[in-house]
Amino acid sequence: MRRAILGFGLCATATLLMAGVMTADGISDRARKLHFSSIVVDTHDDTTQRFLDGKFDLGPRDANGSIDIPRMREGNLSAIFFSIWMPSKVTGPEAVKRALAQIDSVREQIRRHPDALVLATTAAEIREARKQGKIAALMGVEGGHMIASDLGVLRSYAALGVRYMTLTHSGNSEWADSSTAKAEHNGLSPFGKDVVREMNRLGMIVDISHVSDKTFYDVLETSKAPVFASHSSCRAICDAARNMTDQMIKDLAAKGGVIQINYHVGFLSQEFRDAEKANPQIEKDIQAEVNKRCGDNEACQLVQGDNVVREFVNAGKLPRVDYTKIIEHIDHAVKLVGAEHVGLGSDFDGAMMPFGMEDASKLPKITQALLQKGYSESDIRWILGENTLRVMTEVERVSRELGSAQKK
Ligand SMILES: [Zn+2]
Predict the structure, then answer these.
(1) How much distance in Å is there from the Cα of 28 to the middle of ligand 1?
(2) Is 201 exposed, middle or buried (0-12, 13-18, 19+ CB in 10 A)?
(3) Is the dihedral of CA 155, 160, 161, 164 positive or negative?
(4) Is residue 160 a contact partner of residue 203, using CB atoms and an 8 Å limit?
(5) Cα–Cα dist 253/146, whole Å
(6) What is the pLDDT of residue 25?
(7) CB of 154 within 8 A of CB of 198?
(8) CA of 36 to the centre of ligand 1 (A)
(9) What's the pLDDT at 47?
C-alpha cells in the first residue's frame, strides 16, 4: 500500500516536471508568479537578539537561523516585523534600556543596508518599499513589561517606529494577565485599558498573542481599532494556552482582526506537545545541550534551540512536524472566519521550525500548498500580507480620528 502511494507520487511529480508546470523545488510556475507578485508580510520575527548578542548582520547569507537579506529575497518576504523582546522578569528601567538598545540595533541594520532595507511604519510605506524593490522593516515590542508602566515610554517607542505591542509575554505584565501565568489582574487592569486606548491614539496595533483569554476579551471591548495576534495558532488543533480558541478567532475577526499563524512546532502539533509532556527529561536534555553551546547568550540560545530540537527529532526522540501543519492551521482558521482574517507570524529565530519551513526562503511553499488546496489567488494574497496591510490602514485611520478628536 505504502509503495503504491509512493509510486503514484513520483509519477505525478515527473509528469508535472515534464509539463514544465513545476520546478525541482516543488513550486509550480503559477505559485511562483502569484507569490512573487504578492506583498508577503511576517508579523513576528525574533532575529533582533542576534543583532545585539551575536553581532549578527543581515547582509550575508548565514548558515544558522532563518532570516537574512538573501533568504528574505529568495522567499519574497516583503515586510518583516522585528520583535523587541526580553523575558517578562526584566522590568523597570532595565527593561526600557534593553528595549531601546534593541530598537537601535534594528535601525542600525536598516542604516547599514539602505539598498535592501527601509524602515516602514505605515501600510503605505510597505507598499512604497515594495515599489522600490526593498524589504520593509518594522518593529513590534513583545511584552508590556517594557514600558515600565509609563505611557511616556510607550509614546517614545511609537516615535522610534514601533508599530505594535504584545501586551504580555509569558509572564504577566504589571497591568495585563498572560495566558501562561496565574491571573493577577482579572485580564486588563484599569491602567492596562489606558495603555490600549493610548495605543489606539498612537496608531500602534494592539497585539493579543500571549495574553490570557480574559485579557483578550478586555482588549476587544476596549480597543477602538481592530487588533491582531502577531504569532498565535489554533487551539482546536494544538491545545496550547497561548493559541486561540475557535470562539476567540471568530470574535477577533468580527472586530476586523487577523490571526497570524505561528510556525513553532509546539504550537502547531498536539503530537509534538504530548511527546514533550510525556517525557519532561527531554526538555531538560535540550536545555542542557543549548546551555552547553551558548552559555547565557540569548541570541545563540534562540538559534541553537531550533538546531538541537531538529537533532532530537532526527534521533527519533521527538515526533517530526512538517510545514504542512502550518497549512492545516491556516485552513482551520479560514474555514472559521474566511481568508480575510488569517495571516503569517512565523516566530522565525525564536522558536522550533517545522521541517520544510526552516527559513524565509521556503515561504513560496505556503503559496504552493494553498493553491493545491484550491484557494483562490486573491484569498492567498490576503493571507500572505494584504490582511495585515488592511489592519494597519484601519489602525492608522482610528489614530487620525482620535488625534483630531483630542485637538477639539
Ligand atoms: Zn512570542
Answers:
(1) 33
(2) buried
(3) negative
(4) no
(5) 28
(6) 80
(7) yes
(8) 28
(9) 96
Under-70 pLDDT residues of the chain: 1-24, 54, 404-408
**Ligand 1 center from residue 66 Cα (angstroms):** 16
User: What spacing in Å lies between the alpha carbon of 9 and ligand 1's midpoint?
Assistant: 37
CA of residue 292 to ligand 1 center, whole Å: 24
pLDDT of residue 24: 66
Which residue type is seen at 137?
A
How far apart, in Å, do the first and last CA atoms of the chain sit? 73
Check residue 349 and give its pLDDT: 94
**CB-based burial label for 55 (10 Å; 0-12, 13-18, 19+):** exposed
CA–centroid distance, 209 to ligand 1, in Å, is 7
Distance 166 CA to ligand 1 centre (A): 8
Q: Which amino acid is at 10?
A: L
Specify the amino acid at residue 173.
Answer: S
Q: Is there a contact between 138 and 79 (Cβ–Cβ < 8 Å)?
A: yes
311-357: per-residue pLDDT in tens? 999 999 999 999 999 999 999 999 999 999 999 999 999 999 999 99
- Can you give the three-state secondary structure of 213-246, one letter per residue? HHHHHHHHHHCCCCCEECCCCECCCCCCCCCECH
The rounded radius of gyration (Å) of the Cα atoms in the chain is: 21
- State the pLDDT at residue 17: 47
Give me ligand 1 centre to Cα 46, in Å.
Answer: 8
Q: How far does the centroid of ligand 1 lie from the alpha carbon of residue 169, in Å?
A: 6
- Span from the CA of 350 to the centroid of ligand 1 (angstroms): 8
The structure's pTM equals 0.92
Centroid of ligand 1 to alpha carbon of 375 (angstroms)? 29
| CA neighbours closer than 13 Å in the CB half-sphere of residue 39 | 25
pLDDT for 302: 81
